[in-house]
Amino acid sequence: MKTKKFTILHSNDMHGDFLAEVNGQKGKLVGGLALLSGYINQVRREEENVLYVISGDMVQGSLIDSEYKGISTMEIMNYLAPDVVALGNHEFDYGLPHLLFLEKMANFPIVNANLYIKKYNKRLMNPYKIINKAGFDILFTGIITEKVMDSLKQDKLVGSFVTLEEASNEVGKICNAYRNDDIDLTILLTHIGYESDIELAGLLNPDWGVDMIIGGHSHTVLEKPTKVNKILITQAGVGSDQIGRYDIVVDDETNSIVDYRWQLIPIDDRLAKADENLSKFIQSFKDEVDNKYSAIICKLASEVTHPRREVETSLGNLIADTLAECAECEVMLVGSGSIRSQRLGPVVTLKDLMACFPYDDTITKHWISGGRLKKIFEHIMRADNRGGEGECYQVNGRVRAKYDEKAKKLTSLTIDNQTVDDKKIYSIAIQGYHYNNCQSYLNVSSEQLQEINKTKIITTSARQVLEEYLRQKQNVRQEVEGRLEYY
Question: In this predicted structure, what is the pLDDT of residue 335?
Fold first, then answer.
C-alpha cells in the first residue's frame, strides 16, 4: 500500500476581512489576512505536502474591497497564493464583465462546473483543476449557489444548472470525464450552504469517487466534519478569524482517504507571526481609503448594532426607518444581508457608513393588497428562511408582525397599530435587488407587485439617502422594539 500525507487548509466567505482586530483584555490580535498568511506560510514550511483552497466569496463586505471593486482583494489573494479557488455569489457583485477581469488578475485557478453561456452551452470558467502533489493527482471542481442567478438576473446570456440535482449531474460529468485511474483524491469546492452540501453529497454517485466537499455560503462553524455517502463535508465559518485544516493520509492504490484529522483553527498572534509584507501592502490600501472617507457624518445618541441578520436589530431599524421616510411608504423591507457591520456609532464617519452599507441600490415602491402583504411576511418570517441560507429582512417602525413557530404561520400584522386588512391597499418599498428576485425572496411576482400601480423608483442610491439623512439628524437614538416577534 502506497500512502502519502497531505495537509489541506481551507477558507470561505472571507468578504474582504483584511484587518486584524484586538480581542480580549490582554489585547490579543485576532484574524486579518496578514496573520492568516503568517499561519499558512508557517504550515507550508512545517509540512511537506500543503494545499490551500478557498470556497468562494473572497470579495465584498469591506470598504477597501468596495472602493477598488475587488481589485485590491485579488491582489491580496495573490499574496496568499491559494492553490485553487471556487466562485461564490459575491464574486458577481461588480458585474459579470468585471468578474472576468478579476479572474485574469488572479495568479491562481478559479474553478466552476455549472455556470454556462447559454447560447453556446459552454462553461464560463474552467470546470476543474488537477494538481499533482508528491506524485499524487488531486482533482478539484466547483459548484456555485443558486444565489448567483440573483446577481445575473439581468444577463440573459449566462445561465446555470443550479438545482442540486443538476449540480450533481455536473459533478458527475467532470468526474466521468477527468477522474481516471491516476486521480487519487477528488475534492468538490462548493458555495451552496452547509445544509445543501449535505443534500448534494447524498445525490452523488459513489462511483464518481468524490472524497470531500469543502463548502461555503452559510458561514457554518463545525466541531467536526459531517460524513454523508462516505464524503467528508466541512466549512470554516466566515471571515479570516479561523481556518479549516485537514491532515489526511491518501492511499494511492484505492484512491481513498484512509486516515484524517480536521481542526477549525483560530487565527491570532499567538499562533503565528503576521506576514509583514502583506501587512504593509494592505495598509497601503487602507491609508488611501482612510484619507478619502475619514470625514465625520454625524454622532448617534448611542451605538447601534446588527449582531444577527435573522432577528430585528437596532442598526437594521435605523436603516429601515431612514429609507421608509424617504419612500413615504407604510412598509419598508431592508435585506438584513445588505447591512455588513455588526455595530455603528456613536461617531459615524463616511468610511463607517460605506463599510456598513456597501451595496448601493435603487429603492422601488409598490402597492399591494393586505392579503398579499400578509403572505410576504409569512414567507420571510418562516423558520427555514432563518437558518443561515435564507433572505431575512429588517422593517420600519410602523410595522409589527408576529409569527407562530409551532403553527408555522403569521398570527398578527399591524401597521400604525391597525390590523392589516386583506382587501385594503398598502404601499411597500424594497431594494432593487429584492425586486429583481421577488418571487423567490418575497413569494410574490413582479407582475403582482404592479397589478395596482406601476413600480415607482424612489431613489437610485439608497446609500446616498442614508448619508444625507444622517448628516441632517444628530443624536438619533434607535433600539430594538419588537417589530418582528417569534413565539
Answer: 96
